[in-house]
Amino acid sequence: MEVTKSQEQQQHKYPSVIDRYFKKKYYLFEDRQKEAFCILVHSNRICIVTLGETHPILSKNKCIRSVSFTIGDVNRLDNKVSGKAKRGAQTLTATSPLCEITCDDGEKFVVPAGMKGQLIEVNEQLLNNPSLLTLKAFLPLVSRR
Amino acid sequence: MDVGFEMHVFCHNETTLGEITTTLVRAGSCLLCILRHLGVRSPHFYCRPWKDIEAYVLSLLPSTVKEKESTESNTHPFAIVNKPCTLCLGILQEHSTKEFFEKIKEQGDKEDFQYSSFIASLTVPVCAILRQHSMLLFLKDTHKSVYEDKEDTDIPSIKDVWKWRNGPVLGQVLGASFDQKSQFDILLNFLYPESDRECGFLLDLKPDIFKKRKISKKSKKFGWETFTRANVNKVLTTIPDNVFRSKFQCPPPVPAKLCSCNISICHDALYVAGRYNKYSRLLSQTPWVIDGGRKGETSVEELICTPIDQLFKPDEHRFSSSGREDVDVRMLGSGRPFVVELINPHKVKFSQQDLTNLQRKINESTEDIKVRDLQIVSKEDTLVLKEGETEKIKSYLAVCWTEDPVPDEKLEQLSQIQDLKIQQNTPIRVLHRRPLATRERVIHTMSATRIDDQHFKLHLSTQAGTYIKEFVHGDFGRTVPNMTTLLDMDCDILELDVESVELDWPKKLEEGEETTALSEKRV
C-alpha cells in the first residue's frame, strides 16, 4: 500500500487526533480572562478540559510542582462511575473546581469544569507527573449530558 | 361387530361396551371422543372414513337405545356438526374436516409460503383437561369395574388423535408430507373463551399455585394466562375426587359453542453464512442513523442482506459477524465471517448453486464489498461465529506517521517485541456507549516497513478486542504502552486495514472463477 497523494501533502500539516475528532471551545473566568481553558468537545459529546493557550502557566512557561484533586470538601479522586450510563458520577457546573495546580513559584490556579455535566474521570497521571500538563496532557474528562 | 380393525379397548364384553357407549353418547361425546374413552389406541383406526367409524359406534349401541334415541330427538344422535362435543370442543369435529384443511391451505397460499413438508403444533384449551377428568370420574361412577383403575393418561389425548387422523389427510390437501422433523410449522391455536372461567374454581381451591403472572418478555405469548396446562395438571393430582365432583359438573356440561382456531404458519429460521471483504473507507457495517437522520447511503449489512431477503422473503433478518471494523477501515484478506439469520423465511427451496448465483449477484452489485463462501448453515454452526470475536487473533496493517523522523533502530526494535501487554482504558470515541474500564490486551507481534522519514507501515497481530487506533496514538495516554511511548515521539495513524480474521469458518467452498479473481484483486 503506497502513501496516497493526499497523505503526502499532509506530511507537513496533518490533522492531529484532536483536529480529527474534537471541536475546541473556550471557557474564560469573567474577571481573569487570561486564565483561559480549552474544552475539547468530541462528536459524541464527551469533553476534555485542558489549559488554554493563553493561560499564564503556558504563556509564562511556568513549572508545575503539584496537582491536587481535593478542593474544599470535594475529592475528585473519589469519583466512581459504573455502567454505560456512568452512574454515580459527580455532577458539575461551569464553576465547579476540578483541580488545583501549584506552581514552583507558589502561585496557585484552580481549573474549573467550564461546563455542565458529569465527571467521568480525572487524569491521575498528573499526580505523579504534573509536568505533563504543560505538554499535551489532558485534565479531567467530563461528559456533557 | 365390525371387521378386522385392530383395537385395544378397555373391555371386550359386548353388553358392557354397549352400556359405556350409551353413557358417552348421552353425555355429549363426539365420535372420536367416544373411541378415545373406549380405549382405542391404534392410529389407523382413527383414520377410517367418518362413515365407517360412525357405523362401528352405532353397532355398539344396544338396539333399544338406538330406537329410543332416534325417536326422541329430531337430529341423529351423531350429528357431528350440530352438537359441540363436551370433551374436544369441536377440535375432533369441525376442525377435523376437509373444509378446515382447505382454510389452512388458503392461508399458506395467501402468505406465499413454499414448503414440501410440515409439522402441526396444536394448542388445546386448558379447560379440556378438566372436562376430560370430569368425564373419567363420571365413568368411574357409572362403570366402576372398567374404569376404576384408569388414569387421565390412559385416554389417548386430543392432540394425538388429531394428528393421527388428520396429519396424512392435511398433507394431501397441502401437497406436502407430514414429517416430525420438518422445519415448517403450522400452529393451530384453539381458543375457547370460557376456558378461564371453567378453571376459575381452582383459584379458590389452590390460590397460591395460580398467582397471576406479570407479563414478562417470555410470557408475552400467553398474556395474562393464569391457568396453564402445566399447573392445572399438577393441581389435579392433588384434588380428591369428591372435592372435584362438588366443584365441577360430572359429566361435563355441554359447551355453548365450538372453539375457534387461530392458524399461524411459520418456518424455522434459516441461517446463511459467508465471509465479506470491505474495500471502501466510507461504508459502515450496519445502517447508521444519528439524530433521526440517515448517515451514509447504505451499509455492509444492507448490501449483503437485501439480495438475500429478496430471495428468501423472511419476515426480518438479523446480521451478525465475527467482530466488526470502523467505517474508515478496510477488511482485506479472506474476509470476515458473518451470518444472516432469516426469521420465518417464506421461500426455502434453494440449492448451493442458487446461493453461489446469489453471491455473484451481490458481488456484481457493488465495488465496495465482496462476499465469498455463501452457504446455508445449521443453527448449531452459528455458535462458532462469536467464538471468533473474543478468542481469535486478528492481523492488521496500519500506516503510521511520526512527528519527527524516526530512526531505523527504533523501527527495528518494534519487530523484536513479542506478546506485549497493554492496558487500554475505554477509548474516548466509544466512551459514550461503553462502560469506563481498563482492559488488558496483548500485541503478539509487530513489524515495521519504512515508507519515508516520517511514515512507515506497521503490521501487527493482536488479541481480539484490541483498539488499534488507540494503540498507535495513545488516546491521551489512556492506552499504555502505545506507539508514542515505544518510539518516544508523537505518533498517529493515517490508515488502517484488517488483514485477516483467523477464524476458519464457514467452510471454504470450492473456488469458482469469481473467488479466485477476488483473492488476486487486492493485496
From TrEMBL, chain A:
Q: Got a GO cellular component term for this one?
A: filopodium tip
One Gene Ontology MF term? actin filament binding
Spell out the InterPro entries in the cross-references: Abitram, Single_hybrid_motif
- Show the coiled coil region(s): none
Tell me which domain of life the UniProt entry assigns to the organism this sequence originates from.
Answer: Eukaryota
Q: What biological-process GO terms show up in the record?
A: dendrite morphogenesis; regulation of actin filament polymerization; regulation of filopodium assembly
Q: Which PANTHER family match?
A: PROTEIN ABITRAM
Report what the protein is called.
Answer: Actin-binding transcription modulator
UniProtKB/TrEMBL annotation, chain B:
Residues of the signal peptide = none
- InterPro entries from the entry? PsdUridine_synth_cat_dom_sf, Pus10-like, Pus10-like_C, Pus10_N_euk
Specify the superkingdom.
Eukaryota
- Please provide the record's keywords in A-Z order: Isomerase, tRNA processing
**Does the record bear Iron in its keywords?**
no
Give its E.C. classification number.
5.4.99.25
- Domain named Pus10-like C-terminal: which ranges? 271-502
EC supergroup of this enzyme: isomerase
Gene3D superfamilies given in the database record: 3.30.70.2510, 3.30.70.3190
Q: Which GO terms describe its molecular function?
A: RNA binding; tRNA pseudouridine(55) synthase activity
Give the UniProt record's GO annotations in the biological process aspect.
tRNA pseudouridine synthesis
Keyword Lipoprotein in the entry? The reply is no
Q: Which Pfam families match?
A: Pus10_C, Pus10_N_euk
Give residue ranges for domain Pus10 N-terminal eukaryotes: 85-262
Name the family the entry cites: Belongs to the pseudouridine synthase Pus10 family.
Q: Which PANTHER family match?
A: TRNA PSEUDOURIDINE SYNTHASE PUS10
Give the protein's recorded name. Answer: tRNA pseudouridine(55) synthase
